[in-house]
Design brief:
10 helices; about 250 residues; 6-stranded mixed sheet; 5-stranded mixed sheet; Udp-n-acetylmuramoylalanyl-d-glutamate--2,6- Diaminopimelate Ligase, Chain: A, domain 1; elongated; single chain; alpha/beta
Amino acid sequence: MIELNNLETYCNELLDIDSFQDYCPNGLQVDAGRSEVRKIVTGVTASQALIDAAVDAKADLLLVHHGYFWKGEPEPLIGIKGRRIRTLMQAGISLLAYHLPLDAHPQLGNNRQLAEQLGFSTAVPAEEGLIWQADLEQPLDATEFAVRIAKTLGQQPMHISIGDKPIQRIGWCSGGAQDYIESAAELGLDAFITGEISERTVHLARELGIHFYAAGHHATERFGVQALGEHLAEYYKLEHQFIDIPNPA
C-alpha cells in the first residue's frame, strides 16, 4: 500500500517529467478521492473499455500512456470525456498518465521495452529526438524482418520496401513517429520502425532509401506502461494487472 500522492511524486521524479514539453499533462490527471493505492491496473489508452475493465478489476489506480487533456482538445467534461471521468470518479479510481516521459525512459520506456521485445541487444538512444537505434550482429532480410515484427507484436506491419537492401542498422520510435523518417535516414539507418504511417511516408521512404515499418501505434506502446506497472508493484508491494484493449491502429 502506498499513498497516491507519494506514488505520483515517485513516478514524476523517476520519469523526469519536467524535462519534457509535452502535448498533455503528465502525472495525476484525475484524483478520485481514494488516498491509498493497493491495486494498479495499467493499459495503453484510458478508453471507456479500459476504465470499465479497471472497475471490474477493483483497481485503486489506472495508469496509462494515453490519458486526457491534450492540447487543442475541447475542455468541457461532457459526452465521451464526461462519461469516462464520471466512471472513474464514481468508482474511486484515480488516473495517472505519462506520455513522452514514458516513451523516453532508458529502462522502462516504450522504446527500450520495444527493443527488448524485438531482441535488439545493442539498443541506445540516438541524438535525434526520441529515436533509438541498434547495430545488428548479422544483416537481416527486410521481408523476413517483417515476419519477426508480426510474431512479436501479434499483427502484420505495413512494410514500405526499398527492394532487397539488407538491414544492418535499424532505428525505431514507438507510436506516431512517422515524420522522424528523415532524421532516421540522416542517421544512416537501413530501416525505421514506428507505429503509424502517413501518405507522404511512402514517398519519403522510397526517395530516402530506407525500409519503413508501420507496426501499430497501440502495438508498439504496450510495453512501457507494463514495465512501469511491474516496477511499482515490486517496489511498493502492490498488486498490478495489465489489461490490453485490442486496437489494430
